[in-house]
Amino acid sequence: MSRIVVVTSGKGGVGKTTTSAAFATGLALRGYKTAVIDFDVGLRNLDLIMGCERRVVYDFVNVINGEASLKQALIRDKRTENLHVLPASQTRDKDALTKEGVGKVINDLREDHFDFVVCDSPAGIERGAHMAMYFADDAIVVTNPEVSSVRDSDRILGLLQSKTQKAEQGDSVREHLLITRYSPSRVEAGEMLGMEDILEILAVPLIGVIPESQSVLQASNSGSPVILDKASDAGQAYDDFVRRFLGETVPHRFLDVEKKGFFKRLFG
Amino acid sequence: MAWFDYFRQGKQGSAKLAKERLQIVIAHERIDRNGPEYLPQLRRDIMSVIRKYVPITEEQVNVQFEKGTDYDVLELNIALPEREH
Ligand SMILES: Nc1ncnc2c1ncn2[C@@H]1O[C@H](COP(=O)(O)OP(=O)(O)OP(=O)(O)O)[C@@H](O)[C@H]1O
Ligand SMILES: [Mg+2]
Questions:
Q1: Dihedral angle sign, alpha carbons of residues A59, A223, A255, A188
Q2: Nearest 10 degrees: CA dihedral of A262, A191, A150, A174?
């Protein structure tokens, strides 16, 4: 049985692609056969974050249109075994993703015995975002501690509860809240919404908190998902998140301001 | 360190304010979402009827739908323009 997971947010630039790349890599590292699909038609970027941009030959829309087979279009990750990337099309045709077409690709992945299919949603609530969530069993709702992101997350939750296949069948998509770009020092200073505040407003189970971290930019510069940077705080937080998703109980980290030692305080 | 605390105080409010504003706007949007599909059109129709008699802006008409246990409530709140004396 394949599990289809959408990474979504409503608001743009909150960390969906960063999360999709880290999440899919983390699942594959644990031995699960995983595909990660870029649904951002016209704004392909997952390939860059995964570091496979020069190996793109065919894309998602080519497969839907029958111009290439799924096998031809899936890019096998060079670093991580069990990991496959399906890049977005750069077409400007926003109607390229049809429900039938996307459904067929997802079904083919099921038949190929993929354990997980991670759908990297585009921003917004238009067709691309709708198609990314439609077949989902689980949703990772990516939220930044900031008013417009929290509000958009609530709208996306409304869509997950009404505009998905699961919802149409009277069932529900499992929702998980992932807070990213979290800055404990700013929360402590009262400048930024805290984790508890966001949880109270959205009332969705928390699956992880990823700190604001320079390692994310470094990872995207080098085209290597941040979860592979095992020394970094964001990499470790993403790894914790993957373990929680797989059912482990892992305490949350990186929520408090790092207390500086005496010497660090003196000498910076 | 008193001066430091003083500056901290000023900032303390902004996250709190963010939370309060979010709670209000999200509560409203959830009501709209859970209400019947005709709600937005009903709101527009009501607006145009009232406008035949008094000039009124979007913000002055508040249509709320609330699901109750026995029956649902449609609440209509219209703030008329200030009287001129
Ligand atoms: N934890 C983090 N710390 C610091 N920077 C981050 C973090 N997460 C994401 N970013 C940065 O935020 C920017 C947006 O990230 P990303 O592309 O993953 O967002 P997105 O939600 O996929 O955007 P879009 O809506 O355009 O698809 C990138 O520059 C990324 O490096
Ligand atoms: Mg993206």
A1: negative
A2: 20
The pair of three-digit structure tokens given for residue A31, joined into one six-digit string: 């031995």
Mutate to test the pocket of ligand 1, among A216, A218, A240 (most ligand atoms within 8 A of CB): A216
| pLDDT confidence band for A263 (50 / 70 / 90) | low
Q: DSSP of A216-232, one letter per residue? A: HHHHHHHT--GGG-TTS
Closest residue by CA, ligand 1 atom 15: A15
**Using CB atoms, which residue from A150, A158, A189 is nearest to B22?**
A150
- Answer yes or no: are the C-beta atoms of A140 and A104 closer than 8 Å: no
- Measured between CB atoms, which of B18, B19, B33 is closest to A158? B33
Start-to-end Cα distance in chain A: 52
Q: Which H or E element spans position A215?
A: helix A214-222
Which amino acid does the sequence have at A153? S
Do residues A36 and A24 make contact, with C-beta atoms less than 8 angstroms apart? yes
Are the beta carbons of B50 and B56 closer than 8 angstroms? yes
The 10s digit of each residue's pLDDT in A38-83 is 999 999 999 999 999 999 999 999 999 999 999 999 999 999 999 9
Instruction: Please list, in sequence order, all residues whose beta carbon lies within 8 angstroms of the beta carbon of residue A260, skipping any fewer than 6 positions away.
Output: none
Pairing of strands B73-78, B61-66: antiparallel
Residue B20 has pLDDT above 70, yes or no: yes
Encode chain B in three state secondary structure: CHHHHHHHHHHHHHHHHHHHHHHHHHHHHHHHHHCCCCHHHHHHHHHHHHHCCCCCCHHHEEEEEECCCCCCEEEEEECCCCCCC
Write the ipTM.
Answer: 0.86
A17 burial (CB, 10 Å; 0-12 / 13-18 / 19+) is buried
